[in-house]
C-alpha cells in the first residue's frame, strides 16, 4: 500500500472531532509510509490531513482544478501539485495514482467522488479498496441508505460488503491492507471510463 486517495470536506465541520481525527489519520499514514493523494486544497479537512501528513514527514500529492488554484485554495507545501482543467481529470488522476480510497466526512463533492470510485469498482474498471472513515458516526445514515438499496434489489449484497467502514484510524488502515492483500490484482483501464 503505497498511496491512498482521500476524499474529504473543504470545510472542517462544526465539531472539532473531525479535524482531530483527520490529523490522527494523516499522522498514521505518514508513519506507515503511505502517500496522501487528495484534492490539493489547504482548507477544511483537506488542509488538516495534508498538514498532518507533511508535519510527520509524509508525502502529499494534490490534484486540483485551475479554478480552485485561482481562488488561492491550493496547498503550497505539497511535494507535488497536479493542476488540471476539469473535475473529471482530477478524479481520473486520483484514481490512477491511488492504491486505495478513504472517504472522510465531507459534502456533495465527497459523496460524488467516493460514489464514482464505488461505481468503477462495481463495473470492473478498477479493483481497489474503498473505505469510509466513520468519524463521530458521520457515515451511519449513508450506510442506512446503501442497506436500503440492497434490500430493494438495486445493489448486490457483496458490493455492499466490499465497502470498509471504520471509526478507528489504525484499524481502518489495517482493513484496507487486508483487502488489498486479498485482491492484489489491481488494474485500471481508463479508456473504458
UniProtKB/TrEMBL annotation:
- Primary enzyme class: hydrolase
Its cellular-component GO annotations read:
cytosol
Biological process, per Gene Ontology: cytokinin biosynthetic process
- Known EC number: 3.2.2.n1
Q: Where are the transmembrane segments?
A: none
What reaction gets catalysed by this protein?
Answer: AMP + H2O = D-ribose 5-phosphate + adenine
Presence of the UniProt keyword Hydrolase in the record:
yes
InterPro entries for this protein:
LOG, LOG_fam
GO molecular function per UniProt: AMP nucleosidase activity
- Note the Pfam families from the entry: Lysine_decarbox
Entry superkingdom:
Bacteria
**What are the alphabetically sorted keywords of the record?**
Cytokinin biosynthesis, Hydrolase
The record's similarity note reads: Belongs to the LOG family.
Descriptive protein name: Cytokinin riboside 5'-monophosphate phosphoribohydrolase
* Originating species: Pontibacter virosus
Q: What is the lineage of its organism?
A: Bacteria, Pseudomonadati, Bacteroidota, Cytophagia, Cytophagales
Amino acid at each position: 500500500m503505497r498511496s491512498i486517495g482521500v476524499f474529504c470536506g473543504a470545510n472542517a465541520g462544526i465539531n472539532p472531532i473531525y479535524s482531530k481525527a483527520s490529523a490522527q489519520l494523516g499522522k498514521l499514514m505518514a508513519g506507515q509510509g503511505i502517500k496522501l493523494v487528495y484534492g490539493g486544497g489547504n482548507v477544511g479537512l483537506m488542509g488538516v490531513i495534508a498538514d498532518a501528513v507533511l508535519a510527520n514527514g509524509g508525502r502529499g500529492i494534490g490534484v486540483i482544478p485551475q479554478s480552485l488554484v485561482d481562488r488561492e485554495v491550493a496547498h503550497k507545501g505539497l511535494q507535488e501539485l497536479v493542476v488540471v482543467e476539469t473535475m473529471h481529470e482530477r478524479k481520473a488522476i486520483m484514481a490512477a495514482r491511488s492504491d486505495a480510497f478513504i472517504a472522510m466526512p465531507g459534502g456533495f463533492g465527497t459523496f460524488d467522488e467516493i460514489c464514482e470510485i464505488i461505481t468503477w469498482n462495481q463495473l470492473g474498471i478498477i479493483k481497489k479498496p474503498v473505505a469510509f472513515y466513520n468519524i463521530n458516526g458521520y457515515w451511519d445514515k449513508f450506510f442506512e441508505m446503501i442497506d436500503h438499496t440492497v434490500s430493494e434489489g438495486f445493489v448486490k449484497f457483496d458490493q455492499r460488503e466490499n465497502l470498509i467502514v471504520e471509526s478507528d484510524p489504525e484499524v481502518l488502515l489495517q482493513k484496507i491492507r487486508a483487502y488489498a492483500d486479498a485482491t492484489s490484482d489491481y488494474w485500471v483501464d481508463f479508456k473504458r471510463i
